[in-house]
Specification:
Keywords: Membrane, Transmembrane, Transmembrane helix. The chain has about 400 residues and is mostly helical. Among the domains are: about 30 residues, no CATH class; about 35 residues; about 180 residues, no CATH class. It contains 13 helices and no strands. α12 crosses α13.
Length: about 400
């Protein structure tokens, strides 16, 4: 009876020679701290805690080194990181997607704080009144007409719950000064009944705003659709998606109705703004492949892969998010230093303006250095790409607003 030879074992590890080390995972001969075949580290995970802490510190130090090598050229050297990535020099820099992702999260995390600084600090408000040249009036009646016209620019401060106390004081002072000038002009024209007010308490109350009638308040859109009576149904969608869509539409309808209704809308608007800002990061991720596809179309005959355009899009958006993050940090720093060193607000404002000016110049120079075309063609494609991107961005913001209203 013929004996069938045994099949070779899957464990083909070669016995270790004296002085050789083999990978515990695949058996390959080790030539360093990592296996060249499977990538597993030589270090064992079964070791004291201080060894794990050392690995963590090494990882953080390595990551910090990448940040130092990535962020300065990302901000100051257009196209440098992209060309380095194309050339194969990638280890010392953060990956494009990771860079964009972290900067996007950081920027949109701090952006609501910068938008709330107007409520946190009561800054002076300059009130400007136009259309009140009392010196040109020839009669007291004409002075009264000009005064009434100018006072229409004011709203009773008790009906503006979001206005700060200092802003309300500035409005009252401007109204007091305006009324004084009018009364002084009436006295100069010979009106003996005119009295110059001395304080805000001497001013007559502003007329209350006209409340529209019930018929004027009625919006036909409020009765045009109801989620319970007239649910939206898409035949090719499953039932649970139709239900979710109707719930979202109902929340959107309720939020819009609350914004149009009477009362204080500041809390509603703040909540909706936070919801829109929370939806923006996810919306921006859809902009990346769309922008890369746009670059692919614009440079169709350059014979570049779509992935190359995607890397350009990642670095472009990472730069924009970095500018947004720096602008938000400068704004927060300006507000924090306002009570102690108000003179720093001006240079910090200049830095924010420099970022706004530098952003389009940077993107143009990046497009020129990466795609290496002449200036006329580069500028033309830059303008066309920017125009198309603005429309894409507008649709993205509208989508984020719709998602925010539906929450």
């Amino acid at each position: 009876m013929t004996q069938v030879p045994a099949l070779p074992s899957s464990d083909t590890r070669v016995p270790a020679l004296p002085g050789e080390r083999h990978c515990a995972n695949c058996g390959a001969v080790l030539q360093g701290e990592y296996c060249h075949d499977c990538g597993q580290s030589v270090r064992s995970v079964l070791r004291p805690v201080h060894g794990m802490l050392e690995d963590t510190l090494d990882l953080v130090a390595n990551w910090d080194g990448r940040v130092v090598h990535t962020l300065p050229p990302l901000l100051l050297r257009p196209g440098f990181l992209t060309l380095e990535y194309f050339s194969g020099r990638r280890v010392r820099y953060l990956a494009p997607f990771r860079t964009m992702f972290l900067l996007c999260l950081a920027a949109f995390f701090l952006l609501p704080m910068a938008l709330d600084t107007s409520d946190a600090v009561d800054t002076p408000v300059k009130v400007t009144v136009t259309g009140a040249s009392f010196q040109d009036a020839k009669t007291p009646a004409e002075v009264d007409r000009l005064l009434k016209k100018a006072l229409k620019q004011f709203t009773p401060t008790e009906q503006i719950p979001v206005v700060g106390s200092l802003a309300a004081q500035q409005m009252d002072k401007a109204r007091l000064q305006l009324t004084r000038e009018a009364m002084q002009r009436r006295i100069a024209l010979g009106d003996t009944t005119a009295v110059v007010p001395q304080t805000v308490a001497d001013l007559p109350p502003l007329p209350a705003p006209r409340v529209p009638s019930e018929a004027a308040q009625h919006n036909p859109l409020d009765m045009a659709w109801d989620a319970q009576k007239y649910p939206v149904h898409v035949s090719w969608l499953p039932g649970f998606l139709n239900q979710r869509m109707n719930r979202s539409l109902q929340r959107m309808h309720d939020n819009l109705a609350a914004m149009r209704g009477p009362g204080d809308h500041s809390a509603i608007k703040a909540r909706l703004l936070n919801q829109v800002l929370a939806a923006l990061p996810g919306t921006m991720f859809f902009m990346l492949p769309a922008f890369a596809l746009l670059l692919k179309v614009m440079y169709l005959f350059r014979r570049r892969l779509y992935v190359e355009h995607l890397i350009v899009a990642l670095h472009s958006h990472a730069f924009l998010f970095l500018c947004l993050l720096l602008g938000v940090l400068f704004q927060l720093l300006s507000v924090a230093l306002e009570p102690h060193a108000s003179w720093l607000s001006t240079p910090l404002g200049w830095l924010i303006n420099v970022l706004w000016i530098w952003a389009p110049i940077y993107l143009l120079m990046m497009q020129k250095r990466v795609y290496r075309q002449g200036w006329p063609m580069t500028v033309l494609k830059y303008l066309v790409t920017g125009w198309c991107y603005c429309w894409l961005l507008a649709f993205a913001i509208l989508g984020a607003a719709a998602m925010g209203l539906a929450e």
